[in-house]
């Protein structure tokens, strides 16, 4: 034993040393943890007690319920908006600051040279410049409200710096330690409307897709992949233009479709034959996709549901109104719930409103006041056109004359780098986008050859309604205070960009629908492809008059449904768009409502919530029976045969726990890739969604369509293609979910990750962990009412979703319900960061207090904002 003593002593010394290191490490972890907790929590806002604020006239009360949703009560309208700016900054200032840098083309100031291309694009479009013009044009009262709001934001900034504002500033400080936010201005608020308009832009992606398809397909094939709206199958919002607001058989064959019209650019629909053309168009599409999309990635599932039912059909005898906008899966949610209440409502302080706001913007965008409720869905008009321009030096040709280009110099400040200078050139149509990259120049050269124009003279410009200053910024206050249909329409008339479907209800029992917006009238052409800009023959001659836009008030049916479907029929005299949503969601909502009405059931708010949770997949209802028939004829060991047995008896709902839904969606993605993917340009893959529902359902009726053939795979008809795709899908499903099909679940592969728009896509795991949340398993799917959409060309993860849900009861506003995708707070690890997500995930909603009595009863925290001194 004595011989072992030195070894044991050495062993003990090693253990002691290790113990000391471990203890030191643990102490450092505790210290770091404490510092980390302190760093995180120091930005959490004060939500009770009192805070003195310069600029207030009288004290303001801010109560919050258990979800942290603020209800603000003030004696003057000015104090109300000062307080809203202060509260928004408390909960969401990083989001606001990030947004204003995006909309001003100033991301490089935050993140360095990597953001110069994005800033260049935004500077070229000139969002900030237009916003500043709109601020100058505001009426005095609206401008005062915007300044009040800015004053409230700045009051918060005056006492909070760096990580005190938000955890993101602590992370930013590692890369950009010298950054400090500048004061908020009204233009920072108004510029957000440009971003909203961009993310809800019309058919620009469809135009690019058609151009990409033209490099490999004939005009007839392109028409098959971009079919007209199925008017005989799916409803229109109004009866204008021969539209029908009544539903028809869901699987009816369309007999009344919009005829294809020839345009001046039809020649561009022929295959280009030049690989550079495909590459250039791909780069164009990539440039659009690469822009920060503040309300989520653009795509076929960007849309919304809203509907309203009159009191004659409800249990309460008063209208019900539902709305759930479908946007991107952002963290925090794009929406911020708030109540804005004047202590005494009157001409000097007319606000008593609650609903969903945008942080950075005063007022309530969607919700209700003390008499009127409203909801939004995207109308989706064609409001952006690409023009081919003949440019020589600093002039361009127009109607035989050389006109001077408008030149504007921009300087982009770059964190850690040298400033970047650029010159923006514009024609009468809008900014020239050819200068943005070599890809645009390649497009220009290719198109020049088709049009017989010298390539060196050819440029592309963009005309877009959002680049024309308008009154939308002031319309929000008019919506918030409207007391009847006439005042509501007057407010809607000024809500020009982005153009929306507005549904309406009031406490007197009236319901209505109005489509506002600037929608161009073209001298010729249908806006689906670029047109010559050197002649007025293809220019915009004006806008559709407001009184000519689709509208209805107290329709005989007693209900109105809008779900991005066609607002009007095929004979409507003015062109709104050629690219409506194809109406699958609208059809299902109408069928659900009519089933209740026909059964004599008085409709309740619970019925509305149940419809919002509807997961019926009309695409599956059309294709799954066919797959069952085809698979039943295959070998018993084949995937197609096993799929037929799994799908037999399925109710066609994309339920979270459904094995059949899981397999069908894998099959759907596989079918699109096998039947279409290899025949299309790689940059224009089949993404799924409503258009592809319509395409495949129509083609499935033709067993020998060329789309079903593939010589390399020895497939010669529809049945062979379906069987092959089912075999491949069965293998993939087994790989993804295991060998026991009985244990497959749709939500095991269909998951939602809430991603922070800035640091959440940093590529650095620990940083992303700080700000992102998920994955959350979910049901639903693309182009179903519970529109939790996914891109079939990428995978099964969620890309678009109902960003909030509301059901408003006009018999008693306190019986209304709402839910946000995430929570009130934008501060990571705050209790209200994602507290509403589990409710949203389960299609549940929260009580929505509105009256003073119920707001007081729900209050868990009360903050008094007092005038300084």
Tell me the span between the first and last alpha carbons. 82 Å
Number of helices: 24
The major pleated sheet works out as: 11 strands, mixed
Q: Evaluate the radius of gyration.
A: 28 Å
- Pick out the low-confidence regions: 1-15, 249-281, 438-444
Alpha-beta content class: alpha+beta
Strand content bin: 15-25%
Describe the structure.
With 869 residues, this protein is α+β, with helices and mostly antiparallel strands. 36% of the residues lie in helices and 18% in strands. A hairpin with a 2-residue loop joins strand 9 (366-369) and strand 10. It is globular. The termini are far apart.
What keywords describe this structure?
alpha+beta, 11-stranded mixed β-sheet, 24 helices, 31 strands, globular, disordered N terminus
Compact summary:
The protein is α+β, with helices and mostly antiparallel strands. It is built from 24 helices and 31 strands.
Please specify the SSE layout and strand pairing.
Elements: H1 5-41, E1 49-53, E2 60-64, E3 70-74, H2 77-103, H3 107-111, H4 116-125, H5 127-137, H6 140-157, H7 167-175, H8 186-199, H9 204-213, H10 219-225, H11 275-290, E4 303-309, E5 320-328, E6 330-331, E7 336-342, E8 352-357, E9 366-369, E10 372-378, E11 384-392, E12 395-398, E13 401-404, E14 406-412, E15 420-426, H12 438-451, E16 458-464, H13 472-481, H14 485-493, E17 500-506, E18 511-514, E19 520-522, E20 531-532, E21 540-543, E22 551-553, E23 559-562, H15 584-598, H16 605-612, H17 618-631, H18 639-647, H19 659-675, H20 690-699, H21 718-737, E24 751-756, H22 765-771, E25 773-777, E26 789-790, E27 798-802, E28 804-809, E29 817-820, H23 837-841, E30 846-847, H24 852-858, E31 861-867
Parallel strand pairs: 1-31, 3-7, 6-24, 11-20
Antiparallel strand pairs: 2-3, 2-31, 4-5, 4-23, 5-27, 5-28, 7-8, 8-9, 9-10, 10-17, 11-12, 11-16, 12-13, 14-15, 17-18, 18-22, 19-21, 24-25, 26-27, 28-29, 29-30
Helix pairs in contact: 2-6, 2-8, 5-8, 9-11, 11-12, 13-14, 17-18, 18-21, 19-21
């Amino acid at each position: 034993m004595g011989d072992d003593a030195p070894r044991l002593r050495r062993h003990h010394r090693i253990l002691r040393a290790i113990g000391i290191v471990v203890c030191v490490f643990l102490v450092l972890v505790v210290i770091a943890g404490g510092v980390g907790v302190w760093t995180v929590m120091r930005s959490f806002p004060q939500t009770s007690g009192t805070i003195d604020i310069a600029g207030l006239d009288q004290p303001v009360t801010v109560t919050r319920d258990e979800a942290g949703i603020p209800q603000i009560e003030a004696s003057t309208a000015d104090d109300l908006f000062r307080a809203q700016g202060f509260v928004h900054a408390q909960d969401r200032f990083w989001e606001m600051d990030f947004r204003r840098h995006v909309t001003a083309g100033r991301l490089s100031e935050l993140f360095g040279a990597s953001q110069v291309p994005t800033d260049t694009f935004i500077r070229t479009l000139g969002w900030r410049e237009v916003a500043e013009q709109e601020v100058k044009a505001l009426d005095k009262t609206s401008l005062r409200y915007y300044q009040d709001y800015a004053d409230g934001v700045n009051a918060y900034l005056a006492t909070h710096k760096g990580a005190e504002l938000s955890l993101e500033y602590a992370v930013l400080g590692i890369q950009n330690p010298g950054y400090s936010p500048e004061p908020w201005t009204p233009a920072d608020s108004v510029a957000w409307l440009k971003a909203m308009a961009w993310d809800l832009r019309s058919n620009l992606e469809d135009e690019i897709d058609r151009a990409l398809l033209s490099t490999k397909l004939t005009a007839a094939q392109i028409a098959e992949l971009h079919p007209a709206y199925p008017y005989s199958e799916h409803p229109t919002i109004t009866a204008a233009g021969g539209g029908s607001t009544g539903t028809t058989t869901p699987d009816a064959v369309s007999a009344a479709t919009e005829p294809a019209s020839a345009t001046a650019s039809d020649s561009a629909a022929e295959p280009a034959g030049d690989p550079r053309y495909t590459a250039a168009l791909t780069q164009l599409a990539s440039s659009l996709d690469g822009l920060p999309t503040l309300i989520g990635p653009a795509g076929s599932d960007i849309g919304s549901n809203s509907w309203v039912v009159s009191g004659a059909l409800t249990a309460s005898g008063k209208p019900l109104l539902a709305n759930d906008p479908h946007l991107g899966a952002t963290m925090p949610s794009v929406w911020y719930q708030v109540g804005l209440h004047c202590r005494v409502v009157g001409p000097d302080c007319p606000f008593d409103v609650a609903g969903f706001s945008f942080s950075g913007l005063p007022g309530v965008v969607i919700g209700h006041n003390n008499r009127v409720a409203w909801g939004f869905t995207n109308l989706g008009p064609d409001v952006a056109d690409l023009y081919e321009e003949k440019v020589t030096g600093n002039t361009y040709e127009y109607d035989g004359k050389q006109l001077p280009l408008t030149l504007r110099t921009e300087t982009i400040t770059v964190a850690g780098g040298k400033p970047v200078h650029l010159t923006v050139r514009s024609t009468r149509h809008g900014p020239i986008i050819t200068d943005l990259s070599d890809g645009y120049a390649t497009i220009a050269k290719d198109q020049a050859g088709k049009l017989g124009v010298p390539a060196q003279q050819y440029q592309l410009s963009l005309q877009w309604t959002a680049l024309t200053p308008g009154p939308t910024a002031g319309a929000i206050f008019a919506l918030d205070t409207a007391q009847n249909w006439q005042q509501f329409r007057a407010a809607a008339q000024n809500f020009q960009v982005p153009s929306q479907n507005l549904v309406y209800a009031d406490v007197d029992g009236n319901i209505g629908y109005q489509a506002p917006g600037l929608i161009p009238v073209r001298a010729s052409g249908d806006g689906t492809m670029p047109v010559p800009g050197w002649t007025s023959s293809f220019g915009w001659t004006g806008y559709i008059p407001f009184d000519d836009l689709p509208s209805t008030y107290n329709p005989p049916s007693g209900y109105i449904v809008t779900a991005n479907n066609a607002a009007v029929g095929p004979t409507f005299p003015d062109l709104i768009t050629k690219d409506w949503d194809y109406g699958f969601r609208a059809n299902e909502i109408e069928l659900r409502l009519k089933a209740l009405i026909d059964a004599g059931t008085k409709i309740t708010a619970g019925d509305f919530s149940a419809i919002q949770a509807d997961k019926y997949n009309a695409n599956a209802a059309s294709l799954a029976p066919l797959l069952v028939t085809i698979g039943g004829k295959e070998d018993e060991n084949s995937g197609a045969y096993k799929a037929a047995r799994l799908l037999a008896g399925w109710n066609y709902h994309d339920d979270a726990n459904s094995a059949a839904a899981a397999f069908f969606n894998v099959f759907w993605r596989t079918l699109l890739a096998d039947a279409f993917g290899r025949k299309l340009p790689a940059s224009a893959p089949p993404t799924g969604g409503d258009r592809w529902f319509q395409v495949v359902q129509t083609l499935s009726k033709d067993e020998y369509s060329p789309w079903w053939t593939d010589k390399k795979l020895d497939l010669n008809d529809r049945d062979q293609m379906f069987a092959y795709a089912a075999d491949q899908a069965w293998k993939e499903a087994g790989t993804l979910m295991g060998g026991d099909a009985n244990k497959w679940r749709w939500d095991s592969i269909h998951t939602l990750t809430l991603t922070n728009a800035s640091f959440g896509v940093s590529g650095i795991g620990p940083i992303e962990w700080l700000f992102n949340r998920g994955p959350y398993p979910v049901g639903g799917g693309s182009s179903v009412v519970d529109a939790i959409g996914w891109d079939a060309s990428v995978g099964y993860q969620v890309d678009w979703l109902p960003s909030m849900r509301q059901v408003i009861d006009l018999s008693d506003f306190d019986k209304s319900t709402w839910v946000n995708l995430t929570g009130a707070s934008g501060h990571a690890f705050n209790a209200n960061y994602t507290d509403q997500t589990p409710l949203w995930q389960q299609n549940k909603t929260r009580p929505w207090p509105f009256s003073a009595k119920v707001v007081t009863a729900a209050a868990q925290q009360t903050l008094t904002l007092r005038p300084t001194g």
